[in-house]
C-alpha cells in the first residue's frame, strides 16, 4: 500500500468543493488515513513548497496557500500517488483531461483546487510536515478486497 498527501487548497474550500473532491477519492476505492482542516503558516507553506523556491510564481503561491483554510489529508492504496495525480489532472486546467478535478472545476493554474504528492519521497516528506504519526488511523477497509 502506498500513501499520499492531498490538500484541498483555499479556493477549493471557499468554493464548497471539499465534499465533491473527497467523494471522488472515496469512490475510487482509496482509504482515508487522516484529515485536518487548518490554516497553513508561512513557515509550513515554505517547507511544503520548498522545491519551488526562487521560481517566479513562488511568492504568489505561498501567499495563496496560506490565505485561508485548507483541507489536508492522507490517503492510502495501491499506486495511490499516480492514481490521485490522474484524478486531479494536469497543473494547468487548460491541459487537464476532461473528468479530472482540475478540468471539471478549475480555470487557472493559480487556483487549481488541490495539491497531490508527486513521488514517494515527497509524499513521505509532506505527510510528516502536516501530520504526527499517531494521527494516521489504522483500520480495516472492507472494500479493499474488491479493488
Ligand atoms: P501541486 O504541487 O499544487 O499539487 O501542483 P502540481 O504538482 O500540479 O504543480 P507544481 O509544478 O508542483 O506547482 C505547484 C503549484 O504552483 C502553481 N504554479 N504556477 N507557471 C506558473 O504560474 C505556475 N506553475 C505552477 C500552481 O498553483 C501549482 O499547483
Ligand atoms: Mg507539485
Automatic annotation (TrEMBL):
Record flagged with keyword Protein biosynthesis: no
Transmembrane segments: none
Catalytic activity line of the entry: a ribonucleoside 5'-diphosphate + ATP = a ribonucleoside 5'-triphosphate + ADP; dZDP + ATP = dZTP + ADP; a 2'-deoxyribonucleoside 5'-diphosphate + ATP = a 2'-deoxyribonucleoside 5'-triphosphate + ADP
Cited InterPro entries: NDK-like_dom, NDK-like_dom_sf, Nucleoside_diP_kinase, Nucleoside_diP_kinase_AS
CDD domains: NDPk_I
Any Gene Ontology CC annotation: cytoplasm
Signal peptide (UniProt feature, chain positions): none
Subunit structure comment from the entry: Homotetramer.
Name assigned to this protein: Nucleoside diphosphate kinase
